[in-house]
Design goal:
Strand content: 15-25%
Shape: globular
Number of helices: 6
Largest sheet: 6 strands, mixed
Order of helices and strands: EEEHEHEHEEEHEEHH
Oligomer: single chain
CATH topology: Peptide Methionine Sulfoxide Reductase, Chain A
CATH superfamily: Peptide methionine sulphoxide reductase MsrA
Radius of gyration: 16 Å
CATH architecture: 2-Layer Sandwich
Strand order of the largest sheet: 9-8-3-5-4-10
Length: 218
């Protein structure tokens, strides 16, 4: 459950229970990536970048993106739950599945959204959300995507003194999160975490990339 802690009269907002335990390495880390076929002219991409409530809302604001689903990926256990993921023991990170029209937005642009909507040097978390379940991961489905990721990651790295934290991992499987996590920001606008973390992150992204936004997201 998302928590809000009051400490010394200051609110510290968190997307969930934190854990700094390192995940067990996924057995398929070096396996051949699984490629998700294009269906009905829609492709799918997978990203982990902190709380999936935040990341879902960011990608849903991008022109060419049809839908974003919150879930889990990158771990070693089957059928992960939110509670299990929050222990940091499943190896999974909160991940989004981005369903998009490749004729309107390409994979490289989705990567620029990824790097441009977070602190790319933060290790094992994003913002107030700390733990391996919030680590940054970019999942690739083929060697072409891997090359694009490596090139853009190297380009982004030139702007920072610290290393880029995002792992580059072959995609294996995406596990859809519980229904109450889907469209969470949109359905729970008064939630304190949404008000003080998610919306601020979304608005910062919009100001940075106005040219990428859907007309109704500007």
């Amino acid at each position: 459950m998302k928590m809000i802690l009051l400490t010394l009269s200051l609110f510290v907002f968190s997307c969930g229970n934190s854990s700094t335990q390192n995940p067990t390495k996924e057995e398929t880390t070096n396996a051949k990536p699984v490629e998700v076929p294009v269906q009905d002219n829609k492709a799918r991409a997978y990203f982990a970048s902190g709380c999936f409530w935040c990341v879902e809302a960011i990608y849903e604001s991008v022109e060419g993106v049809d839908e974003v689903i919150s879930g889990y990926s990158g771990g070693h256990t089957k059928n992960p739950t939110y509670e299990a993921s929050n222990t940091g023991k499943t190896g999974h990170a909160e991940t989004v599945e981005v369903i998009y029209d490749p004729k309107k937005v390409d994979f490289a642009t989705l990567l620029r959204v990824y790097f441009g909507s977070q602190n790319p040097t933060q290790v094992n978390g994003q913002g107030p959300d700390i733990g391996s379940q919030y680590r940054s991961i970019i999942f690739y489905q083929n060697q072409e995507q891997k090359k694009i990721i490596e090139d853009i990651k190297a380009e982004v790295a030139k702007n920072y003194d610290k290393p880029i934290a995002a792992e580059v991992v072959p995609f294996q499987k995406f596990w859809r999160a519980e229904d109450y996590h889907q469209n969470y920001e949109k359905l729970n606008p008064d939630n304190p975490y949404i008000q003080n973390v998610s919306i601020l992150r979304l608005e910062k992204f919009k100001k940075k990339f106005p040219e990428l936004l859907k007309k109704n997201s500007k």
